[in-house]
UniProtKB/TrEMBL annotation:
Stored Pfam families: Glyco_transf_5
Keywords: Glycosyltransferase, Starch biosynthesis, Transferase
Bias (Low complexity) ranges: 35-44
Pathway entry: Glycan biosynthesis; starch biosynthesis
Comp. bias (Polar residues): 45-64
Organism superkingdom: Eukaryota
Catalyzed reactions: [(1->4)-alpha-D-glucosyl](n) + ADP-alpha-D-glucose = [(1->4)-alpha-D-glucosyl](n+1) + ADP + H(+)
Organism, scientific name: Rubus argutus
Molecular function in Gene Ontology: alpha-1,4-glucan glucosyltransferase (ADP-glucose donor) activity
EC category: transferase
Lineage, uppermost ranks: Eukaryota, Viridiplantae, Streptophyta, Embryophyta, Tracheophyta
GO biological process, one term: starch biosynthetic process
Location of the region described as Disordered in the Swiss-Prot/TrEMBL record: 1-64
Name used for this protein in its record: starch synthase
Amino acid sequence: MKAALMSTTTPWQPPPRQKPPNAAGALCCSKVNGASASSSSSFSQIKLQGSENNAEVSQPQVQSEEAKQTEIWRLFREAQKNILHLNQHRLKAVEDLNKTNSEKQLLVDRIEQLELEKQASVGKRQDRLSSCWEILLRIDAMVLAGMVAAGEATDLRRLVMDYKVSLAEVFNGTLQKTDAELLAELRHFSARSRRNCFHIVHICTEMEPLVSVRSLASYVTGLSCALQRKGHLVEVILPKYSSMDLDEVQGLQEIEAESFSYFNGQLHRNRIWTGVVYGIGVTLIQPLDYSAFFDREKVYGYSDDFERFTYFSRASLDYIVKCGKLPDVIHIHNWETAIIGPLFWDIFAKQGLEGTRILLTCHDLNSQCLEHPDKLALCGLDPSSLHRPDRLQDNTKTHLVNVLKGGVVYSNKVVIMSSILSKGRVIHNLSHGLDPTLNIYKNKLIVSPCGFDNSTWDPAKDNFIPQKFSVKDMEGKTVCKAVLQQHLGLPEHASTILIGCILSEVLDVDLENLRAVLLKASRSDAQFIIMGTSKVSSIHKLGSLQEPLKDEKVKFVNGCDEVLSHLIFAGSDIILCQSFHDPVLQVPLKALKYGAAPFALNSFHDNFRNFAEHDYETTDFSRFISSTFGNMSMSEALDEIKNNPSKWKRKIMDAMEMDFSWDAECCDIHVSAYTAIKKL
């Protein structure tokens, strides 16, 4: 097209002007014919003159046609120039569009590549961690099979700890290697440098998601994952319960060599299973001679619980020694594994574990396990040397031994889990008869708050809620509130205060406190959503609240609905919980993260103010709560929301910016405890 346009650019010219026809011929004829010419000369002259007159008459018409043709051609040339100019712009625009589309496609391809790299990086980190644990568990099997000595095994484990990233790449695909091949490669990869990290072994009776009954399960998993994210090596030893969901264990395998443990005067066989859960190495101990110990419907609550868990505790220590493990810390929990304290110092510290220390965590001081002293002999302990006031003898029932007391006495540090109480208040108010012992050993007592899983509970990442939000963009919380109101049939008013309440077991005192709060707050413009989470709880008791509160502003939800629970946190302005210390549901911690103010049913704000403001040994969480929502009554909170919204919003935003996850204060306190006992 462009070539065709260029060929027409030469200007079109009109034809040259012609002389009148036959004029020259008439003159010639007059010369040849003589007279005839003369006689007709007058006629010829007249005719010629007439032709000239006619030419003069048509001249303006010719000039007019020429001007018209010239003007048409001028306009045609301008049109051609305009078309050419527009065509050039069109070609440039097409070129720019193609360039933009190309750049856009490159950008889309890059985004997809980065997303794939991100997913691959996450998967690679998990694969590396799993590979490291595969190597560590293979080392355990080599020791049990007699392929490597305990001392060398310890060095090899340190090698894996110090170079876990490099080793994961060097020894990729260890399942395809024989034990001999892997051992040869490990010995070859001998150069290493010691890093400042701890090797921690939890010996416990619960761990999410394998077996979960109390708060211990989430604590072991949450803390272990947080410790490993900070570079420490953590493993867990559990009983192999028959009810355990083993599908959650990655790479589950049975170690071929049997482990033996001492109990009731004899050596007994155990089957050992290993695997990885959430990147944490897990060892399961299955008694063969006492197979009925853990082949039961429940985890706790049997008359022989002392025998069951004492056997497991002794078997765990026997396994650690036989594998040649030299952990920095053996972390034990509650009375069920507290017997490890005296077992370790009286028997196992002399078997190559001189550098190992013991840390006990107490989640419930009310459960202590009192037994006849003679039963201590079942696991190889000497009853006469331990049944003493300064050791295991119970402070009140002196004819019995107190297993939890023995754990306190024989541990290097004792961590008491409490989100709001100080060490002093725990000793004097919640020790359940252990206060003389705790007073003696108060210098090794530490109080730690619980944490929560912020990878699952984070409004900025939560896929269960209709619109994500964060402290920098709170629009999503308004959307979540509207969706929650619509879902439960509540009047949809953004200005209405929405109060959520999430409970597990409903005690009578909780019911009375909740009834009082509902009656007071229902007089104001507030809506309530009450959810019970326990599958077998007394949540039906909440039905008694429906009679006096037949109001469209109060909704009761029975059963556990994970999606709805996320939405309640996201859409509520206030969350009622049973206590600020809630290790099971972790309601106060989740509420703060989702921009909802937590209020405890069983804590009168005046009482909370008294101990929170005057006791400086409380946790960061307790101090924050006392300075924000803990000092307020429900009526004061409702009044501030309505009359001083900017002040309330500042509190909410401050709360959302706080970090109360497992990775924060809880993990830091435990690392400090590990560091302190390693220096002893």
